[in-house]
Amino acid sequence: MAQLLVLSSAPGGGAVLPALELLSHRVRQIPAEPAQLVNAPSADVVFVDARIDLVGAKSLCKILTTTGMEAPLVLVVTEGGLTAVSTDWGVDDVVLVGAGPAEIDARIRLAMGRRSAEQVSSRISTSGITIDESSYSAKVHGKPLDLTYKEFQLLHFFATHPSRVFTREQLLSEVWGYDYFGGTRTVDVHVRRLRAKLGDLEQLIGTVRNVGYRFNVYEDDQPPVPAPSA
């Protein structure tokens, strides 16, 4: 049984998807207004009513996707409204208002399954570190790391290129970009700060003397052997 949230501003407040009433899912319906989203209840799937106001529904979908909502979005439309829907709406699926309970139930399962798979694929776990690409966050043994955006980018780059040695110039180019005019010293500074935040796992970022740095990967999360700092 899933928690479903229906966003609708249709007059009368009637059921947006009548077939939902024939299913065992828990359904909450609130006005489709940005102000209502602040205290909106949590949901496994969010349905957006686009039967009447396609323009308003599209704007609401964009707000929901840009604010980082994790639940999949399913758009409820009439057959005529299908022609207006495109990828830039940011929805996960579309369902016709007259869809039967079996179809709606299947779409709920598929939407939840796809989103769960996407969330798993966006995470990198290695040597005690977990990196979540979708939320730009990282954890060490389950504890959140307080990283700046650039520190996160550097850690992410290292973790996605394990055991490979990079010079400071290469790191500067890959993480900071070709248009960055600062010197390679900024790489050393960020590595030092990142190591300090990694604590006991600081030596995951190893120094290759006279060359640069590499991300050390250890089997079974065994602690790395201490190495000289930069």
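the 2nd protein, sequnce then structure:
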Amino acid sequence: MQTIQNIGQKIKPVLDRGIAEWGIFGLILLASVASFGLGRLSALEDARPVVSVSQASAAALAISEAPGGLLEASKTGTVYYYPWCAGAAKISPQNARWFASEKAAQAAGLRPAKNCKGLVSS
């Protein structure tokens, strides 16, 4: 009965000779296949269709517009928000006032909300 060590000792010289003779060829083949695969991936990346805003549906454009203006503020508050900011969601419709620009909101004595990204104070 052969043990695993005996089988390993018989296989080792065959593997050593095979790696010595075919090792460099195997590495070159592996590098070639990897390069070909990366080239195919880059070709697929370039083949993606370009997305254009002109392809957007009219319904999506209508939903993205705020109902009263660009900026929203509370009648009793001191800050203004974009309509999609968290603070604007807390303003009730009957207590909301709208502004077309940041200059108009600042002229009314309001400042930009600090937790609403994109608003700048002047």
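The chain has two domains: 1-47, 62-112. Strands lie at 71-74, 79-81, 96-99, 111-112.
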